[in-house]
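Section 5: illustrative case.
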């Protein structure tokens, strides 16, 4: 499912226009993005949680040239599936 299909489902389920559904979906995603940028944890019961993991910098190797390169520290979003969703997918 992509974002456009999600908007269509929200519009049908909430009995609103696609424009309103798009605003709803965009508002939810923007709020989630803002929270993750701040380093906050997002938990949706029965679905899962999103956290930002911090990775330290390290020395890597360019596979083409063999040269050592410095890889900067980074923050990446991480999703952990919730028990309810895991059970529903596996049933």
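Designed sequence:
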């Amino acid at each position: 499912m992509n974002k456009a299909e999600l908007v269509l489902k929200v519009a049908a389920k909430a009995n609103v226009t696609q424009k309103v559904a798009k605003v709803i979906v965009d508002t939810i995603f923007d709020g989630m993005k803002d929270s993750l940028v701040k380093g906050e944890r997002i938990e949706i019961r029965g679905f899962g949680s999103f956290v930002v993991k911090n990775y330290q910098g390290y020395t890597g190797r360019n596979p083409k040239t063999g040269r050592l390169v410095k890889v900067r520290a980074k923050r990446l979003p991480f999703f952990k599936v919730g028990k309810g969703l895991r059970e529903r997918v596996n049933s």
